[in-house]
Every structure is written in structure tokens, then in C-alpha cells.
Amino acid sequence: MRIAVIGGTGDLGRGLAVRLAGSYSIIIGSRETARAVKTAEELSTMAKTSIIGLSNEDAAALCDSAIIAIPSLPTYEMLAAIKNRLKGKLVISPVVPMTFENGVFGYALREGSAAERIAGALESRVVAAFHTVPAEKLVSLREELNCDVLAAADKREDYSEASRIISSIKNLRPLYCGGLGNARVLESLTPLLLNAGRQNKIKSPSLKVV
Ligand SMILES: NC(=O)c1ccc[n+]([C@@H]2O[C@H](COP(=O)([O-])OP(=O)(O)OC[C@H]3O[C@@H](n4cnc5c(N)ncnc54)[C@H](OP(=O)(O)O)[C@@H]3O)[C@@H](O)[C@H]2O)c1
């Protein structure tokens, strides 16, 4: 199974790609093909397996499932460019629209969530997940993860498909949290965790439900 990481040249995309590469064929997507190719070469060495780099559009066309790992809300134009290529496919959104003002992280949307907006713009099966898994921990393969991944999806079978991807990363436990209407709550956990980390000197805070 081929997973495209749209925006896979960034921090989270690189971390997820290198961790998933043991179980899936990974395609790094970028707005610039050359950047995707360079990142894919670096990650192939780290993961000791072949990862390829393409434009976001070509990555979307070639994959079976995709992860949209770009900062803040993807623009309408960006989603329109990959919409047909991702039609009917599983799309995971870890996207968290955030603000940072006066040393405090906040959730940027007044209503709804990034995942719901992505679902509204695409004709894909969108699952919200990975918001509270720090990129720094993912990309460092020696790091023990031991985190939970809270996930929301309108259809339980879409969550199940995403949960297989999540659990393929050692010590990540997927937890179903209900429909995509809950994505707003999941996404707003990230600024909360980052504030807790900042105020209490916890590096790369993550989440575990006990
Ligand atoms: N970093 C974390 O620890 C973490 C954890 C959980 C969730 N998240 C969420 O995951 C998403 C990605 O985070 P990140 O830290 O990996 O972000 P990032 O490193 O800042 O950016 C990821 C990639 O997105 C692409 N990009 C940048 N601006 C774009 C735009 N306007 N339109 C389309 N593509 C654009 C860039 O790739 P190209 O220039 O190559 O196209 C960039 O390398 C964010 O929504 C974040 O909230 C992050």
C-alpha cells in the first residue's frame, strides 16, 4: 500500500514518513518536486528503505492513502489541485490551525475544524489524527514513542483503516473519538499541550489516556 505525505518535506511529514516506511511504500509530496526528491533521498537513508519524492499532485495520484501534513488550513486552490486524484481514498488530517501571541498558543478557527474543511473540499474519506504526536519524537528513530493517537472519523470503517496505519508505528495506540464533528476538540488539544510544555518545561509534550 502506498501512502503519500502531502507536504512531506516538513517536520511532521518527515517524521511520519520515516516511521511508516517499514510497513508502507512512502511517497513524499511537495510543491517543488526537487525538494521532495531531496527529502526522499535523506529519509530513504534514515529508514533504510526506498522512499520516493514527487509533486503533491503526482503523489496524490499514485497513492492509495494520503496524509496532509501542511501548516494551517490548506487553501482551496491546493485542495482543488489534488481533489480528483484523492477521490474515494483515505485521507488523514493532522492539521492544526494555530495562533501564537504573547507567548501563548491558541486554536485559530472560530468554528469547525481543519479536518471538516478538508473533508468538505475533497471527495475523500477523511480521518483526523496525529495532532498530538510530536514530529521531533517521530523523526528520531531511537526515541520511544508511547503515545496515544486520538482520531475522529464519520465512518468507523475509515477509522479502522487509519488505525492500522497508526498502529504500524511501534508504541502508538489509536483511540476512536467519534465523528469528524469532534475534530475541533482533537485539534485544539495541540495548543493546550504546547502551552503545558512551555509553562512546565516539558520538551515535545505528547498525550496518553490512562
Ligand atoms: N510539527 C509537529 O510536531 C506536529 C505535530 C502534530 C500535528 N502537526 C500539524 O501537522 C501539520 C504540518 O506540520 P509541520 O510542522 O510539519 O509543518 P511545516 O514543517 O511548517 O510544513 C510542512 C510542509 O508544508 C508545505 N507547505 C508550507 N506552506 C504551505 C502552503 N501554504 N501550502 C501548501 N504547502 C505548504 C511545505 O512543503 P513544500 O514547501 O515542500 O511544499 C512544508 O515543508 C500542521 O498543520 C501542524 O499543525 C504538526
Topology:
Layout: E1 2-6, H1 11-20, E2 25-30, H2 33-47, E3 52-55, H3 56-62, E4 65-68, H4 76-83, E5 90-93, E6 98-101, E7 104-107, H5 114-121, E8 125-128, H6 135-139, E9 147-153, H7 156-167, E10 172-176, H8 183-200
Parallel strand pairs: 1-2, 1-4, 2-3, 4-5, 5-8, 9-10
Antiparallel strand pairs: 6-7, 8-9
Helix pairs in contact: 1-2
Description of the structure:
The protein has 210 residues and is an alpha/beta fold. It is 40% helix and 22% strand. Helix 1 (11-20) packs across helix 2 (33-47). The model has no long low-confidence stretch (mean pLDDT 97). The protein binds NADP nicotinamide-adenine-dinucleotide phosphate. NADP nicotinamide-adenine-dinucleotide phosphate (NAP) binds at residues 7, 9-13, 30-32, 35, 69-72, 78, 94-96, 130-131, 133-135.
Q: In one word, what is the shape?
A: globular
**Mean pLDDT figure:** 97
Element order: H for helix, E for strand: EHEHEHEHEEEHEHEHEH
Q: Please identify, by name, the CATH architecture.
A: 3-Layer(aba) Sandwich
Query: Can you identify the CATH superfamily?
Result: NAD(P)-binding Rossmann-like Domain
Low-confidence parts: none
How many domains comprise the coordinates? Answer: 1
Report the bound ligands by name, code or SMILES: NADP nicotinamide-adenine-dinucleotide phosphate
Main sheet?
8 strands, mixed
Individual helix count: 8
Helix/strand-derived category reads alpha/beta
Distance between the first and last residues' Cα: 32 Å
How much β-strand is present in the residues?
Answer: 15-25%
- Assign a percent range to the helix content: 25-40%
